[in-house]
Amino acid sequence: MKHNPGFLKLVEAARQKVTECTIAEVKAKLDRGEPFHFIDVREDHEFAKDHAKGALHLGRGILERDIEGLIPDKQAEIVLYCGGGYRSVLAADSLRQMGYVRVASMDGGIRAWREAGYPLEGCSK
Fold it and tell me: How many other β-carbons are positioned within 10 Å of the β-carbon of residue 119?
């Protein structure tokens, strides 16, 4: 997907302020059973099509409104992902601004997760 320059500029500015992690790091955390919140910030229809196994859904459109009800602990570890790692960077920056201190964006998003053959749920063919 070709993104518009204004969007890319916004993402790059946010990227300077947030932590990013790889899909391999997230998969290893899941495999070790480490406690963290794994959140898909894509749209409802994207999540329904498929999502990373074990991920919760809190779409980008409602993330800031609902996150404190779902995760009131601002020290909790949170990993966000989207389609390719752009929206999740913006979402991580929003949560950082809200006081969450252990938030990361999963670089490559669900596309990289799928390409690696990592487990998916909700797959509709």
Answer: 10
